[in-house]
Amino acid sequence: MSQTFTITVLPGDGIGPEVIEQAIHVLKAVEKLEDVTFTFEYARLGGCAIDEDGTPLPEETLEKARRSDAVLLGAVGGPKWDNNPAHLRPETGLLGIRKALGLYANLRPAFMLDCMVEVSALKEEVVRGVDLMVIRELTGGLYFGEKKRYKTENGEVASDELIYHEYEIERIVRRAFEVARLRGKKLTSVDKANVLESSRLWRKVVDRVAHDYPDVELRHQLVDSCAMELLRWPKQFDTIVTENMFGDILSDEASMLTGSIGMLPSASLADGNFGLYEPVHGSAPDIAGKGIANPTATILSAAMMLKYSFGMERAANAVEKAVHKVLNSGVRTADIAKSKEEAVSTKEMADKIIAAMHE
Amino acid sequence: MSQTFTITVLPGDGIGPEVIEQAIHVLKAVEKLEDVTFTFEYARLGGCAIDEDGTPLPEETLEKARRSDAVLLGAVGGPKWDNNPAHLRPETGLLGIRKALGLYANLRPAFMLDCMVEVSALKEEVVRGVDLMVIRELTGGLYFGEKKRYKTENGEVASDELIYHEYEIERIVRRAFEVARLRGKKLTSVDKANVLESSRLWRKVVDRVAHDYPDVELRHQLVDSCAMELLRWPKQFDTIVTENMFGDILSDEASMLTGSIGMLPSASLADGNFGLYEPVHGSAPDIAGKGIANPTATILSAAMMLKYSFGMERAANAVEKAVHKVLNSGVRTADIAKSKEEAVSTKEMADKIIAAMHE
Ligand SMILES: CC(C)[C@H](C(=O)O)[C@@H](O)C(=O)O
Ligand SMILES: CC(C)[C@H](C(=O)O)[C@@H](O)C(=O)O
Question: Which ligand is nearest to the CA of B282?
């Protein structure tokens, strides 16, 4: 019996539509290889939604997403909306959809392919073989705590609350242990327990949940120390779990270790199988419309969707393998090409990946 | 007429006393070269104070510090006190003295000496010539905002408040512009203004203060982007200013770019000339008492004291130059020695620096 999955597609802004188009080609290739049918439902998020619907997150988009099995997002944002008030900014749509769909678990793999080591700012011996996963809490903490702004006799005051409920910590930590168990069985929990009360609760919950995962080696690390160690010797890390703001910073630092964020995917998961998948890179307005963006990150995001939302591990591996094969063979888009090499277009890169899937 | 300065010396824990001893030898050498007299007043902070006085920050220490012109600190902490309750932990003493003495401006230089490039995890072309300064707000934000911890029917809740008053932002930003003006005249202000209310106020104040420094080029950058850019191309940065928690993370990341935190000093300044000076590295309990710790960071911290608290620019430069000369000549303590080189002791390193000052 053939399976059917509905995917809400949010091309977004800038290079978003271009890279999404190619990821969809790859998914259509998967349909031919596996007994599966995908239905694509297009909707708007971010700048294009502000222009078209007057809000970065239209209700219709949320409704479509809720009726679907997963969401595939390109990228949002651009200079056009940069000076808008907060409620009319693209990233407000992104934060809104995370919260509305309960996407609390952000999975950010950072891996170094052998054929790409020269792109990194780090020495070859430091980055060769790096393969880590940052798991960031995505719907709590400073991002969603109470914000205040008021005037006093001595000028203005502004505040944000970093707040965590035990259950919010517990669910992300469990997810992280589950992921670590399927990877290198080493989990680093990052906090600032020597200063923050929320970190002390975080650490307590981690220690409690750890009892259910005796096969996973657990380490606590302070966020400042982690920021150092990530770049001193990244290979010491397997899976990292941390709260929202620390995760924002550390996952980006970890991405940049590889030197090629044009290749890194992400998943933002809710309870159950539902998730939103998007490349780590932004909307890159400077190269939008030129057909030269690197579609790899979005294609690998689609592979994460196959794995985490649809349980199609084999197809996910096939896509990943095809990507590695094409990169190994020296095919490069402009962002990762050495100056003298010839760079391929967005479409050519995807075509080569699809061809490799059929080999 | 000879000048006299009183220095409160806090050797602290672990390797603290060893590196402090050598920094004091260097200061005594300065006394011989310049028309100045230093009076050293010893006091306790951190673990040694917990053991001796039952508190990490004895009142007597604060009184001595207040009566002096500057404070020189070794390092605090160690496994012995790691499981103590918060009020009996060494770092509580550190946070306490920062707040009590109004040390709101933390200056953290990160520089790459040519002769040290091989120690870095980054490629030579990326780090050669790196010379940046992270200026971290040190007495506000999440560190000192209200903390809560309570139980509900659904488990525990914990929170920390990230709060900034306009005047707190203004004074650190002014300081940063002043520092940038004496450096490369480029200031990067780091925040998360697309998410945090406190960052929006931060950015507003920065833009206002910037009018008084038209000669300094200002850029705003988001913290996640800065964490990436620091390791992609650190030479784009000259002076960075940011709030307390972001500064904790980014200053440590910036330090590690150089690969040798055994060499990096710091200054924590109050209004006026008063400051506390300490190496960036910790108390390194594993090598304490062996006489092999690198005293360079503490010696360079003493040089910052000469410059920022005593206005002795020439003497500060002499110390810095002597340090560079000795390192250039290949002298290495164990932490920065290549395996086959012979490492010198803490005392030998300081002796060589003092000898170079007299050349
Ligand atoms: C755009 C911004 C609000 C967002 C975040 O901080 O979460 C982005 O940096 C990310 O990591 O997805
Ligand atoms: C020990 C700790 C509380 C402290 C901080 O976070 O400020 C340290 O990391 C530092 O940077 O001086």
Answer: 2
pLDDT tens per residue across span A213-243 = 999 999 999 999 999 999 999 999 999 999 9
Give, in degrees to the nearest 5, the angle at Cα B261 between B24 and B326: 55
Q: Is the pLDDT of residue A340 over 80?
A: no
Task: Give the closest residue to A332 by CA, choosing from A341, A324, A321, A322.
Answer: A341
* Ligand in closest contact with the CA of A76: 1
Co-location of A219 and A139 in the same domain:
yes
Task: Considering only the beta carbons, identify the residue of A202, A224, A255 that sits closest to B252.
Answer: A224
The distance of Cα B139 from the centroid of its chain, to the nearest Å, equals 14
Kindly state the average pLDDT of the residues B224-235.
Answer: 97
Residue reference for tokens 């969809």: A24
- DSSP for B193-222, written as a single string: TTT-HHHHHHHHHHHHHHTT-TTSEEEEEE
A19 contacts A348 by C-beta, under 8 angstroms: no
Structure confidence by residue, pLDDT tens digits, B99-158: 999 999 999 999 999 999 999 999 999 999 999 999 999 999 999 999 999 999 999 999
Q: Is the CB of A91 under 6 A from ligand 1?
A: yes
If we measure between CA atoms, which residue out of B96, B49, B5 comes closest to residue B302? Answer: B5
Q: Which residue in chain B has the smallest CA separation from A230?
A: B253
The bridge status of strand A275-279 relative to strand A70-75 is parallel
Q: Is B288 annotated as a binding residue?
A: yes
Q: Which of A195, A228, A261 is the last residue of a domain?
A: A261
Q: By the 8 A CB rule, do A17 and A11 touch?
A: yes
Q: Which residues have any ligand 2 atom within 6 Å of their CB? A: A 194-195, 224; B 91, 94-95, 248
Residues of A labelled catalytic:
143, 192, 224, 248, 252
Structure-block tokens of residue B19: 């590196």
Our count of domains for chain B comes to 2
Asked if residue B265 belongs to a domain, the reply is no
Domain boundary among the residues A261, A279, A308 is at A261
CATH number for B160: 3.40.718.10
Token reading at B132: 């940046």
pLDDT confidence of residue B74: 98
Do residues A110 and A173 share a domain?
yes
Give residue A195 CA to ligand 2 midpoint distance, Å.
8
Residues 6+ apart with CB under 8 A from B278: B72, B73, B74, B75, B265, B266, B268, B298, B301
Give the distance from residue B122's alpha carbon to the nearest chain A alpha carbon, in angstroms. 4
Contacts (Cβ under 8 Å, ≥6 apart) of A178 = none
**What's the full length of chain A, in residues?**
359
Report the residue from A126, A152, A245 with minimal CB separation from B121. Answer: A126
Nearest to A353 by CA among A248, A263, A236: A263
Taking the complete model, does pTM exceed 0.90, yes or no? yes
Query: Three-state SS for A159?
Result: strand
Please tell me the total number of residues recorded for chain B in this structure.
359
Would you say A202 and A189 are in contact if contact means Cβ atoms under 8 Å apart? yes
Answer whether B157 sits within 8 Å of A166, measured CB to CB: yes
